[in-house]
Amino acid sequence: MVSKICLMACKNGFYFAEKILPHLNRFLKDANYSEISLTKTDEVQFRNTEIKSNILESIRGSHVFIVQDVSNKSNGYSVSDNVLALKTLINSARISDAFKITVILPTFPFARQDKHFSREGITARMFAQELEMLGVNTVITLDIHNLAIAGFFNKTVFENLKGFRDLNKYVKQNLPLENLVVSSPDIGGLKRAENYASELKINLVSIYKERNYKKIDAIDKMYVIGDVKNKDVLLVDDMIDTGGTLFNAAKLLKEKGANKIYFACSLPFLNPPSKERFDSLYKDGILEYLIATNAVYHTQEFLENTPWFKQVDVSDYFAKVIFNIFTYKSISNLLKNIKS
Ligand code: R5P
After folding, report:
1. Of 67, 120, 126, 187, which sits most exposed with the smallest number of CB within 10 A?
2. Looking at ligand 1, which atom is closest to the CA of residue 242?
3. CA angle 135, 138, 143 (to 5 degrees)
């Protein structure tokens, strides 16, 4: 028997959960299930910065889907606060006798701390183990930086959705394709860019990037591999943190004779100084615009006043995956043929 479904959110996951809800209700209704509201929860941060979560309705026997956007810092929370809020809500659900717990993390924290390197911690693995220990059955995320992170889980099911699905739809509908080539800003992202090349039937070029890991946000060298002279270029990356990679890549492509430059990205964190960097690229006529998903929260004010930012909504996609997981249906047709 399929249990009852509950959708709830930590404070900073509300924005995305509210986006998911109407789509999920559409799928539920079409399959003759009752429509749902967000399950009521309460999250407080005490003066000493501890966080407490409480579920205000019975969820006994339900499949609970918890949404948390760890990158949303709009209420003053840090990523670490958001992670703690998530863990406290998972624990509330577990000890309130949820049948199953699925965590929806549009952005997976610590994803770039994924390898054994000198004496650094492998924090992505530590976080995966914590989720598992808390009793999480399934994790749903978008374009994880390194798919090997799935292997940090032993029992928890890990589903990695692909921003490409909706970003590519936008590119197809809005960009002139005749003169377009796609590029990755580094060799690591080549497979991601290849998806666009094969789907849009356009050429693929790449950039070789050498980072200076002794410094934060420092790139030593960049070379273009391929011809971009008089071409429009779609530069594709999984995430934008400080914007340094795409800023330098765009300037280099322009030097090599590129015409119009577009960025596409699943996780637009746009931490400082990205905005200043992209404002200046836009002002100098180097950047046309950035196409990015709403997996990362941005304020209405930012969305209305940033002419180079085009947002693509992936909440419908998440809702479909949630519905299929709830009803034990396959999701492979929602992930198929997309390399990451
Ligand atoms: C690197 O491997 C990633 O794919 C991104 O290119 C990188 O994390 C972006 O960081 P930033 O915007 O700070 O250059």
Report:
1. 120
2. 13
3. 135
